[in-house]
Specification:
The structure is a homodimer. With about 325 residues, chain A is an alpha/beta fold. In chain A, about 30% of the residues lie in helices and about 15% in strands. The first copy, chain A, is elongated. In chain A, helix 4 (about 75-80) links the parallel strand 4 (about 65) and strand 5 (about 85-90). Chain A has a 7-stranded parallel beta sheet, covered by helices on one side. In chain A, strands 2-1-3-4-5 form a 5-stranded parallel beta sheet. The first copy, chain A, folds into 2 domains: about 1-90 and about 280-300, Rossmann fold (3-Layer(aba) Sandwich), CATH 3.40.50.720; about 95-270, NAD(P)-binding Rossmann-like Domain (Rossmann fold, 3-Layer(aba) Sandwich), CATH 3.40.50.
Chain lengths: ~325, ~325
């Protein structure tokens, strides 16, 4: 069996893997070549390097392990046509993303941006406008794996968590759940509004002018899902009019954000360049998921973790 | 009965208090006057405005409620001589301080300082050097009320907590406890070293050169206790020599930190101007502690909360 990685893990991660499976021919390349694809039985990829044309060369590939959570860029139909099993690393982002979200919330509450500026001026001042996270209320749009991890951490800080999903069905670490239909009525209670929603037809421009008007004027709005959630002009208008207190954005309608985009310089906006899920431990975590699934695959077991339904897109 | 406040709470906090105790004459002033002190039965103060001379005027004062956690600046002997009961708001700092400490740790782990600088340049870059807090180990010097709250939150993030106190006796939310004697041997295991120790003879220069040499070269060292913990020259030397990765300092040997102090500009040092305990909810919280104790006092009960032993200093 030949396993083709289109990226090369660090030696301290790669070598133990190779040693653990001596019966397997591993090929590690940085990038995708059709020649190697043609010889591979299993493909391990970040999922952004494959197109319809490549898949024609994947004659022997029976399993694609995607070391990523999204598959938006994969040639879904071509993969389905070839009956290739695709599994991913769902859940891998939850720790770094939840830590990033908490980092931004706490930084704002505890006046960290102000403090860094004071230090640059070597200016001792106690005029920090600090508030507390405890006893506040957070509304979490999309309380799935990541959203629930955010909820778990917020609850540890004494925050009331309200999950909001399409159906209104229960979710972990949410004190309360509302459906998308109940969103507008619930927004006035939230001190923090966090979206980790995926991109779907239903989430596109889910938040409209009325939603921002319904938020507290000091609310922190955070988009860590996808940029389609809100028309950026609507968001900019809400910030300029003081309808919300802060916007912390990890995703945008178009990425990268162009240099002259108004969001870069608008007061009370924090731009995170879609890095909230990044972590120095990403490859390590991916291989931790890959290894037991490879065992299963070698034993002929078909119940891999996180097998994807490409026709649904997740 | 006459209660003299040497600070004036906001109307929304003051008015309900006055309404709740109609039998009491409340006097609110911003500052201390001997004239009012002479007429007072109970004194409510932040504790920094009293000296030996003032206490001579406190002829009728039987109880001093200190809306602060430290009493270092109070005229202890004069108060003891007059047998005045002193109680404070111990524990009031735990929420804002623990939130500040977590804010700084997460900011460093998730590259928030880098992100803020990128935004100033309107520069989209994904080259953030982000790590994770999860699975790291924190050593907490002084696992009391504040230290244990820090431990509780860190454990929620999947951090192993090691408390370090004089005796090695158990403390809440610590996976392990070591005594001061075991400190040096334990430091090599810690990714984060946090002190919330009070100022005592034993804590003065508790950390020496050998301790910084024993720390991991990427360790985050945080002093949120008192500036006497370490000779700042030793600390500066450790940072300049890369013996530690980061220093986050809320307290200093001399405060305010003078404008030309090297700590302001040393790379990988964060200066927090002794504001980690500040909160917009401070007075509210103090009065929440004061109110039930005033009830007790009026009923002649002597078991007030947080009665202090001034001769011991806490």
């Amino acid at each position: 069996m030949r396993i083709y990685f289109t990226f090369e893990p660090r030696p301290d991660l790669k070598d133990p893997l190779v040693a653990e499976f001596p019966e397997i021919d591993f090929v590690f390349e940085n990038g995708l070549s059709n020649k190697e694809l043609q010889r591979a039985d299993v493909l391990v990829t970040y999922g952004e390097d494959l197109d319809d044309n490549n898949i024609q060369y994947a004659e022997n590939v029976k399993w694609i392990f995607v070391a990523s959570a999204g598959v938006e860029k994969m040639p879904a139909q071509a993969i389905i046509d070839r009956s290739i099993v695709v599994s991913n690393v769902r859940g891998i982002h939850k720790t770094p993303m939840a830590e990033s979200i908490l980092a931004h919330i706490l930084a704002i509450k505890r006046a960290i941006p102000w403090m860094y500026e004071q230090q640059k001026k070597s200016e001792w001042s106690k005029k920090a406008k600090q508030t507390e996270l405890r006893d506040s209320t957070a509304l979490i749009l999309g309380p799935g794996t990541i959203g629930s991890e955010v909820g778990r951490l917020l609850q540890a800080f004494g925050v009331t968590t309200i999950g909001c999903n399409r159906s209104g069905k229960e979710a972990a670490y949410m004190d309360e759940i509302v459906s998308f239909d109940g969103l507008l009525d619930t927004l006035p209670r939230a001190d923090i509004v966090i979206s980790v929603l995926p991109k779907t037809v239903e989430t596109t421009h889910l938040l409209k002018e009325a939603h921002f008007k319904a938020m507290k004027s000091n609310a922190i709005f955070m988009n860590f899902g996808r940029g389609n959630l809100v028309d950026e002009n609507v968001l900019i208008h809400a910030i300029e009019n003081g309808e919300i207190g802060y916007a912390v954005l990890d995703v945008f309608e178009e990425e990268p954000l162009v240099a002259d985009h108004p969001l870069w310089t608008l007061p009370n906006v924090i731009v995170s360049p879609h890095v909230s899920s990044h972590s120095s431990r990403y490859v390590e975590r991916s291989l931790d998921i890959f290894r037991p699934n490879l065992e299963k695959w070698l034993n002929g077991e078909k119940d891999l973790e996180n097998v994807m339904n490409l026709s649904r897109g997740y």
